[in-house]
Fold these 2 entries.
Entry 1:
Amino acid sequence: MSKGLPETRTDAAMSELVPEPRPKPAVPMKPVGINPNLLGYIGIDTIIEQMRKKTMKTGFDFNIMVVGQSGLGKSTLVNTLFKSQVSRKASSWNREEKIPKTVEIKAIGHVIEEGGVKMKLTVIDTPGFGDQINNERCWEPIEKYINEQYEKFLKEEVNIARKKRIPDTRVHCCLYFISPTGHSLRPLDLEFMKHLSKVVNIIPVIAKADTMTLEEKSEFKQRVRKELEVNGIEFYPQKEFDEDLEDKTENDKIRQESMPFAVVGSDKEYQVNGKRVLGRKTPWGIIEVENLNHCEFALLRDFVIRTHLQDLKEVTHNIHYETYRAKRLNDNGGLPPGEGLLGTVLPPVPATPCPTAE
Amino acid sequence: ICNSISRPTGEGCRTVPLAGHVGFDSLPDQLVNKSVSQGFCFNILCVGETGLGKSTLMDTLFNTKFEGEPATHTQPGVQLRSNTYDLQESNVGLKLTIVSTVGFGDQINKEDSYKPIVEFIDAQFEAYLQEELKIRRVLHTYHDSRIHACLYFIAPTGHSLKSLDLVTMKKLDSKVNIIPIIAKSDAISKSELTKFKIKITSELVSNGVQIYQFPTDDESVAEINGTMNAHLPFAVIGSTEELKIGNKMMKARQYPWGTVQVENEAHCDFVKLREMLIRVNMEDLREQTHSRHYELYRRCKLEEMGFKDTDPDSKPFSLQETYEAKRNEFLGELQKKEEEMRQMFVQRVKEKEAELKEAEKELHEKFDRLKKLHQDEKKKLEDKKKSLDDEVNAFKQRKTAAELLQSQGSQAGGSQTLKRDKEKKK
């Protein structure tokens, strides 16, 4: 999988300031014009170029969900990730809009373009999660939303006359924000991740990591990793979906060393050493968001956007969606006809989570 | 209790400017790399009469000697021969499947010649549809066997299309991307070729045959595809023999009057065909097969099976409902069959039972008979024994009586009486 990917990716982990890597194309491009002097060459590898052109034309969809208690910096982080105001910060809301009484799901879409690649990015925010006094089952609305998106896609796919490109609203990635307590994971965190890791790709991040020193950070990360393992929570990249040895070694390194990423988000720029960098200004110094010595934001960004974005979509489509579909089609065999099936009354998507294949 | 606020796609979706380099422009690369590691597959169908050089052309196109014996003209019906090969170029692996008709055009009655071809194409669609409809499916590792391109070989008569060609192409045009080519075109002169091409194109148009048009919506290839569309059908020559021409080795065919170079554009359109088929439009051919031909097949098949989509006003059907109905129907049929079998089983058992009962009765009768026989025998023997016993008793009585008399006589008379008794006895 890393064939043709920028070698600068691993170098970036070493250097201080992350350079802007430009990915090398997978194969040297062949001119489209007719070249009659190449006897042995057939031209099969031009399919790469043909495919790339096609995908650039159709564009991409990406849906990212952020879950965590209020004030953990979710919106700021997403804005930093995508270097634009894609998420409205809670602090900028009117004062009348207090913390919601229940978990709300807010999905807002934007179109962003870079290097000729158009992406429709949808950020799904979950205000109200974990903010009540009694947070029992507060993950249920989120699970319901995710299943609703699978349902929508399934309905479209099952049509007789179906669209050329089915609109994809399924959640490809869920960033779960862990509070930087320094101790361990909270029961709410464990419950949420236990339930949701079976239906969506979860990437745990430690929020507001500028409150921990380096030692505290590494200890906390180790403890979190241990706890996730003990509780059987498979976060993305899941071990069972590693395709080949290359993937496995690469992902193992990420799973066992880097994750969960301890991040700091900011959308303000400051002048440091003559360069303008994103950072947070404190009386004791400026925390540079993209500096790997300060926090792991750059790792998270590279991981989610530059190397594993397509894989996130594929795992969602090939595994989570298929699991949902198989369960749904199997279940309907038991329901009497006319009730709660695709196409008729929009079926009540079960409030309780669908038990998966296990 | 959950509010879902979402701005629907396409409506009011703002384009937001980026304040720096995010990095998702590597997305096409990520996608392509995944595809490369999975490998590609491409399936070509060659339809044409025996001896038009289908196998040779494939060899020439892919620079490989694919195995295979040339077919004879004595095939009883049209068959399809399919072979899959793994080709590799740089780091791209291609699973190439070449399907060739065998015996096409050789029969005396060619009415049904197109049928095996149509059936084959449909069978590939059906296999894909079945996989797609499965509950547990593995579509992303499924080996796609659907035909992406159909090269139709036209015989170089120089006049016009044969009626077999027209009929076959008409049957195939809604199922597969047809690219007509003039085979063995070194048999036609340049001037005849232009007339031939015009005649073929006009016949195709007047008969409503939809051949594959190279796509002209992408600016980078619009121009070249547009020009190529005008050169259809391509006049090709195939050859795997390499001859030295000038100071280079080239694929060519040698005649006493000159050498025809395969890759010389002045001699034939082989290079154009290779360019269009492989280097420019391979991906588009695959996409058209999936999004147009396969969707059409799927739609027809599902409608045929009784599924319907949602109607805006009437009560909508649903795929699941119809599934349910079908499943119940099927179960009903199965139950009926089960009943039938059960009935048959019961019947057979009854018959067998009756048979066995008969046999049992017979046995009983036989046993009774034998028993009676035995008893009769026994009785007879007993009677005999009794009579014998009686005789013995009688004898004993007489003996005792005689002895008694004798003892009395000996007291009275002596041995004379005994003698007299003895004589008397005698």
Entry 2:
Amino acid sequence: MGYHCIMFTDETLDSVGTESSWRRSLQSVQESRSCQTLPLHTAEAEVQALHVTNNGTQTDAQDCFAEYHETSGDHPGLKEFLDGIEEMVIKELIKNSRSHAFDGFEVNWVDHKETVACIHRLQHPDAQSRGLQVTSLSWSCTGSVIACAFGRVDDGDWNTERCFVCTWNLDRRGLNPKRPDLTIDVASAVMCLSFHPQRPSLIAGGLYSGEVVVWDTSRTQDPILAQTGMSADTHREPVYQVHWVPGSRRGELDVMSAGSGGRVLQWRVEGVEGRLVLASGYALVRQQVPMINTLSKARGGSSIGVTALALSPWDLDSFLVGSEGGLVLKCAFSSQTVSAALPDGESVTLRAPAQFCFSPSSGPVHSLHCSPFHRNLFVSGGTDGLAHLHSLLQAEPLLALRVCDSSYVFAVRWSPTRPLVFAAATGQGLVQIFDLGRRSLRAATTIDQETGGKPVYCLEFNPRQTHLLAAGNGDGTINIWQLSGNLTEQGPRETAQLEQLANEVAD
Amino acid sequence: MAEVEETLKRIQCQKGVQGIIIANAEGIPIKTTLDNASTVQYAGLIHQLLMKARSTVRDIDPQNDLTFLRIRSKKNEIMIAPDKDYFLIVIQNPSE
């Protein structure tokens, strides 16, 4: 028997290659190009000054002395008077600054109300039966008359039903809360109202149809003093904000209206002709808003619908705009940039007013209000259920206060007497009043409107009788609240505390 | 004249002083560190109060006379130093 050894040896095979059927070498389509500029022409030249002169000026010192002599001659004995009392006055000032004599000393001149009470509950039976809501409130400049606009905000459809504006005079003895003193019929829903700040009988209103009307309540025949009518200048979308601003003519006020079409228009009142004439206008478009970071998430229509407007009592040139998309913008009346919005036959060139964009919120901004006690502060409220305290100096808000959970904030207003207090109206039917001087960020007082869960749409403090607060509800009623003393009496250090809050601007 | 300005500056530098007004015997302001509207208001109102205070003191005792008047309010203190030809108003907020 034998074994067959199988010997393993290395073997090499030829490599196999396949040609690609679709790829070709790119070498074959190569071209080369070159270029060169034409030769440059250069030339040299020299220059030298032939004539040189020196000159100098100096003021005369003597004139100053002559002036001093004149004025001291006007007040003989002034120097002696001051020399005599200076020491005593300075001694008293120093003693006073160190004194603790008056620490904690408070005087009660007036009986302070301890509680918040509802003194009136106004309603219009016709509006209630039709289920209309109170969309806007305004107090007259005298503080006695309150005007209420009835309309519809819960209807998604284009609204064409007739609505009203009602006024009640709260100081009249025969006040009937169920019967307004004056009812004005309006062709479409009224979305905003504003009383004239000096003439107690004029009211400006913005309608759902885009028209702006000025009513004169002292007229018996036809209360309409002036209106825009439907012209090329009118808003095409509902007007959500109406304000009186210093006008084009000296001593008179114009009406400023803003709507969801992105237009902010200023109208001159021509009472004789019964028309509102467009004096100047602004159009807001996305491309012309100075954004801090590109917010290109939202697409569609480049115009920015305006839902909130606030005028600054400190700076007559600037105004704040809040939009449907959550933007809060600082704008200027004097802006000269022409708007990029397509002209639509308007009689004036529309301008782009936006100068600065604050940090946006996630839903429409319903309300903005500038503080009457500090030039840089304003408060905003929108659909995120928060009230933001902003400074004009920075984009991020200084404070965010939770007003309500899972509900919208429809209106925010600063108190006219207490620098640290503001009120916010919620979609759950509550009015929350916040006091920034307290440690806690929760509301100082909550007022239940007792509307059965219907939202509170508007809120206004009485400018004259500053302890009164009016709130208009979704069930068509208006509550007039009398606030307690602790919400209306200004404390001694409040302005300083507000100043401190405003200075917390990040560097 | 520079001495008058210096005296006013020394008073202005004291702690908490918000404003100084010097008015003549008729209540017309001649020097002030506040704005025009406030100055006119202060000078006019305080002149009336000064006259009333002085006559009150002299009615109680004809040999007596007013030397200094201080009004303390919730927000600040107004000090008035009167004289034959002029009076000085200093507004101070002592808690500042």
